């Protein structure tokens, strides 16, 4: 059986003593294995990345961007193969994988503008005969640790920006979905990236801890669940590294009584159940304002849910594929039991779904809970499955108070026809990414992505302008070239104009 290895210094490599199974979630079968890097392997990758840094740092940004232009073309030419690999290991529907890849490519396009983004700032005559400028220098070796649910897009949030800024990179992708991520890094070599600039190590905690504890690694970008994000952030910080760690979510949609209910229901269907609910921006709570809106919402959702197709992601007719692993399937199922015990009303139960020919796949149908309250675990915790909770409130302010009190603050949205209400909501809600009649307000590549509260540890958001700041350090130079023969006396007062 094939074992997926690493990419270190431009070479694929695999001589690990440890490996783990990679499953096809639509069949429940092991399709390949993935090598788990030892400390020695990760240290070798760091050594190679460090060796590649001086030359890459001094490569003109326009030349670095040329690699990104070529990579964009290669990603588009190989899109079908990349998406097939995503679907085989993640389970999401092919068209959904295409959407993910497209959003990843947009980050490569953004990286193509490196020369413009790295121009810096200049002030002539900051003082008499004195010029001053600020430039943005790369940090050195930086790393990215990524989750299973966007194996193409989330790594592309990180390394294109990091390397066009002149850094060298070590990527540690999810061990559950390794193939598309590795293939994309191989395409980057094909696009002309020098060996050692981008390295990929597959692995688990041992690999991550080596990256966090090695003093040659200057910065860490992480995307994954909140407990691990917090651990990464605290460890990286205590080791003196710059860190941004994006965590989990519980994203609420407020449904106002004046909302266009048919459009709202369509939007919520995709946002709650697309990718089987395994998106950090998935809507997992719909907060209906007023019982009339709630009854209407639940009735229309039930109608649309009964028309859903669930099956293998290789068939684009399906709306939803399987969950990622058998363990995750059991976890989501347990949450349904918990919700019932807590007294929520399960109006659609997807637990006993059977997909013919795929009896061993991790398929679960869409589930809908009504009359969920804030004290319930199914409300408080991230389920990361096809489960939507409806909470009933009496006013928009009550809905906003709920959202503000929640520990997560990744994304949120409001469905309404009232511009004043929408403006008040976006202005005041304590959440990082806000949609107005837009259910998944994932920022485009030239804005930045990040939640608030326990959805992000760190200051700077992912990709876009914040990424350029994150992957560079500012240096400010002040210069004077006195005219020949001019002698100046010693000045003991603090220099000022
Ligand atoms: P995860 O936290 O289990 O794993 C993420 C990464 O951390 C993987 O590379 C994994 O190998 C590594 N890891 C896992 N346990 C570790 C440990 N004990 N020590 C060191 N490293 C460890 O997350 P996941 O299940 O792959 O992804 C789903 C989670 O990611 C969800 O919580 C989801 O909300 C979140 N997510 C967040 C965003 C965002 O932008 N905020 C985006 C996508 C996913």
Instruction: Kindly identify the CATH topology of the largest domain.
Output: Aldehyde Dehydrogenase, Chain A, domain 1
Stretches with pLDDT under 50, minimum 5 residues: none
Structural class: alpha/beta
Compute the separation of the termini in Å. Answer: 72 Å
Could you say what the CATH architecture of the largest domain is? Answer: 3-Layer(aba) Sandwich
What would CATH call the homologous superfamily of the largest domain?
A: Aldehyde Dehydrogenase, Chain A, domain 1
User: What is the 3D shape?
Assistant: globular
What's the story with the biggest beta sheet? 7 strands, mixed
Give a short overview.
This protein is an alpha/beta fold. Helices cover 39% and strands 23% of the residues.
Structure in words:
- The chain has two domains: 3-247 and 455-477, Aldehyde Dehydrogenase, Chain A, domain 1, CATH 3.40.605; 251-436, Aldehyde Dehydrogenase, Chain A, domain 2 (3-Layer(aba) Sandwich).
- The chain has 16 helices and 23 strands.
- Helices cover 39% and strands 23% of the residues.
- Strand 8, helix 6 (153-164) and strand 9 (168-172) form a beta-alpha-beta unit.
- It has a seven-stranded mixed sheet with strand order 15-16-17-14-13-19-20, with helices on both faces. Strands 10-9-8-11-12-22 form a six-stranded mixed sheet, sandwiched between helices. A three-stranded mixed sheet has the order 1-5-4, covered by helices on one side.
- The model has no long low-confidence stretch (mean pLDDT 97).
- The chain is α/β, with parallel strands linked by helices.
- Nicotinamide-adenine-dinucleotide binds at residues 145-150, 154, 172, 174-175, 204-205, 208, 223-225, 228, 246-249, 280, 382, 384, 410, 451, 455.
């Amino acid at each position: 059986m094939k074992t997926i290895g690493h990419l270190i210094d431009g070479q694929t490599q695999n001589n690990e003593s440890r490996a783990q199974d990679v499953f096809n979630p639509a069949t429940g079968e092991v399709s390949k294995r993935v090598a788990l890097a030892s400390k020695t392997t990760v240290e070798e990758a760091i050594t190679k990345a460090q060796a590649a840094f001086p030359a890459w740092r001094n490569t003109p940004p326009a030349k670095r961007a040329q690699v990104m232009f070529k990579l964009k073309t290669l990603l588009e030419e190989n899109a079908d193969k990349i998406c097939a690999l995503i679907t085989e290991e993640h389970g999401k529907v092919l068209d959904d994988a295409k959407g993910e890849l497209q959003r990843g490519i947009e980050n490569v396009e953004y990286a193509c503008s490196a020369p413009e983004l790295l121009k810096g700032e200049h002030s002539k005559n900051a003082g008499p005969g004195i010029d001053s400028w600020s430039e943005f220098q790369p940090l050195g070796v930086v790393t990215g640790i990524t989750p299973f649910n966007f194996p193409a897009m989330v790594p592309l949030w990180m390394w294109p920006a990091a390397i066009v800024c002149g850094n060298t990179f070590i990527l540690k992708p999810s061990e559950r979905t390794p193939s598309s991520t590795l293939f994309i890094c191989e395409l980057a070599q094909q696009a002309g990236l020098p060996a050692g600039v981008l390295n990929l190590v597959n692995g688990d905690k041992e690999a991550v801890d080596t990256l966090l504890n090695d003093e040659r690694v200057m910065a860490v970008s992480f995307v994954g669940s909140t407990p691990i994000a917090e651990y990464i952030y605290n460890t990286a910080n205590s080791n003196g590294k710059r860190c941004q760690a994006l965590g989990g979510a519980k994203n609420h949609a407020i449904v106002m009584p004046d909302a266009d209910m048919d459009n709202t229901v369509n939007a919520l269907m995709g946002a709650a159940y697309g990718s089987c609910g395994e998106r950090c921006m998935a809507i997992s709570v719909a907060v209906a304002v007023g019982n009339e809106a709630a009854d209407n919402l639940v009735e229309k959702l039930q109608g649309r849910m009964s028309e859903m197709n669930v099956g293998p992601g290789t068939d684009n007719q399906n709306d939803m594929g399987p969950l990622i692993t058998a363990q995750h399937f059991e976890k989501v199922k347990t949450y349904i039991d918990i919700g019932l015990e807590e007294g929520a009303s399960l109006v659609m139960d997807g637990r006993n779904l059977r997909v013919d020919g795929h009896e061993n796949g991790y398929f679960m149908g869409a589930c809908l809970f009504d009359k969920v309250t804030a004290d319930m675990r199914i409300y408080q915790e991230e389920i990361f499955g096809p489960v939507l909770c409806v909470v009933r409130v009496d006013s928009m302010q009550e809905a906003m108070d709920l959202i503000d009190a929640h520990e997560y603050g990744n994304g949120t949205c409001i469905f309404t026809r009232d511009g004043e209400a929408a403006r008040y909501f976006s202005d005041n809600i304590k959440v990082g990414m806000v949609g107005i009649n837009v259910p998944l307000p994932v920022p485009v590549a030239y804005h930045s992505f990040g939640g608030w509260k326990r959805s992000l540890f760190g200051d700077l958001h992912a990709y876009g302008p914040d990424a350029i700041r994150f992957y560079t350090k500012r240096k400010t130079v002040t210069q004077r070239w006195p005219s020949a023969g001019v002698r100046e006396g010693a000045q003991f007062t603090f220099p000022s104009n």
